[in-house]
Design a protein that fits this description.
Elements lengths: L2 H9 L3 E4 L2 E4 L11 H13 L6 E10 L9 E10 L3 E10 L2 E12 L22 H4 L4 H4 L1 H4 L4 E6 L14 E9 L7 H12 L20 E12 L9 E11 L2 E10 L4 E13 L3
Antiparallel strand pairs: 1-2, 2-4, 3-6, 3-9, 4-5, 5-6, 7-8, 8-10, 9-12, 10-11, 11-12
C-alpha cells in the first residue's frame, strides 16, 4: 500500500487495553482538532472487535460532543448492549482528558436475504475523466502550503456542477457528486472497508450545505463542525474501488446545515446511505 493509505490502516488498528477498552492514536499532523471521520472510524473498529465474525455492521449513529485533542491518545469504551439471534448492538464512548468527546451506537446483523430495491445512481462522468485533487485545486497550492502537497489516503475527485446531471435524481436537489476510493489496494477484511468508507464519508458532506449559498469551506468565512453522523450499510462494496458519493442538502437553519448522500458502487449498487448535521455559523466580517 502507498504510505498514506498504510498510515490510515494503521490508524484504524486500535490497541486493546482491557476487556471492552481500546486505545487509538491520531496522525502526527498540524491539526487543531481530531478529524471527525477518524474518531468515527476508530469507534466502529472498537465496536466490531467485540462482535462475532458472522455479523456485519448495517448501521451506525454518532454524536460529536467535544473537539478531540490530536496530541493525546483516545480511549474507546465499548458497552455490549445486546447480543440477539440476528442483531448485535454496541455503544461506544470515546474519551480524552477524562471527558467523552464522541459517542456511537452501531448495529450488526447476520447475513439474510429479503426484499430488494434502491434509488437509482445519478449519471456521472467516469472517475478517470475527473480532475484529481491536486489538478482541481492547483490554484490554491501556494495558499494552502504543506497541507496541499501532503500525501492523501483517499483519492477524492469532485465532479464539476456543469457536468453533473443529478439535480432531478437526488431528493431535495442534487448539489455535489464526488468519486472516491482508497489510494491503493486494501486487504479483503470487510470491516476495514466499512471503516475506511466511514472515515471518508465525513470529508465532503457538510461542505455540501454551503453550495446553495455560493460558499466554500476553504474560504474561511464559516465556522463548521460536525454535530451528528448516521450511516446505513446496504450492500457489499470495496473501499479501494471507485465509489460515487452523491450528496444533497435539504435544509439549513438555526446555524445548522443538513447533508445527506448515497454512496454507489461503480456498477450502480447503492452501498451506503449517509446523513449528517453540522454547525455552519457565518463568521462576521
Amino acid at each position: 500500500m502507498p504510505k498514506a493509505l498504510d498510515a490510515l490502516v494503521e490508524l484504524l488498528d486500535l490497541e486493546p487495553i482491557e476487556v471492552n477498552i481500546f486505545r487509538g492514536l491520531s496522525p502526527d499532523e498540524n491539526r487543531q482538532r481530531v478529524f471527525g471521520g477518524q474518531v468515527a472510524g476508530q469507534a466502529l473498529v472498537a465496536a466490531a472487535r467485540t462482535v462475532g465474525d458472522d455479523r456485519a455492521v448495517h448501521s451506525l449513529h454518532a454524536y460529536f460532543l467535544r473537539p478531540g485533542d490530536p496530541t493525546v491518545p483516545i480511549l474507546y469504551e465499548v458497552d455490549r448492549a445486546r447480543d440477539g439471534r440476528s442483531f448485535t448492538t454496541r455503544r461506544v464512548v470515546a474519551i480524552q482528558h477524562g471527558r467523552p468527546i464522541f459517542n456511537l451506537s452501531a448495529s450488526f446483523q447476520v447475513a439474510e436475504t429479503g426484499f430488494d430495491h434502491q434509488a437509482p445512481m445519478p449519471p456521472a462522468p467516469p472517475p478517470e475523466s475527473v480532475p484529481t485533487f491536486t489538478e482541481r485545486f492547483a490554484d490554491r497550492a501556494e495558499e494552502w502550503g504543506d497541507w496541499f502537497h501532503r500525501p492523501r489516503p483517499i483519492d477524492m475527485r469532485y465532479v464539476d456542477d456543469e457536468d453533473a446531471d443529478a439535480v432531478a435524481s437526488m431528493p431535495g436537489g442534487g448539489r455535489r457528486l464526488v468519486w472516491f476510493r482508497a489510494d491503493g489496494e486494501l486487504p479483503d477484511d470487510p470491516l476495514l472497508h466499512a471503516c475506511v468508507v466511514t472515515y471518508a464519508s465525513d470529508m465532503t458532506l457538510l461542505d455540501t450545505t454551503l453550495v446553495p449559498h455560493g460558499l466554500r469551506a476553504q474560504e474561511g468565512r464559516v465556522m463548521m463542525a460536525s454535530l451528528d453522523h448516521a450511516m446505513w450499510f446496504h450492500r457489499p462494496f470495496r473501499a479501494d474501488e471507485w465509489l460515487l458519493y452523491a450528496q444533497g442538502t435539504p435544509s439549513a437553519s438555526g446555524g445548522r446545515g443538513l447533508g445527506w448522500g448515497g454512496i454507489f458502487t461503480r456498477d450502480g449498487a447503492l452501498a451506503v446511505s449517509v446523513v449528517q448535521e453540522g454547525l455552519i455559523r457565518p463568521i462576521p466580517e
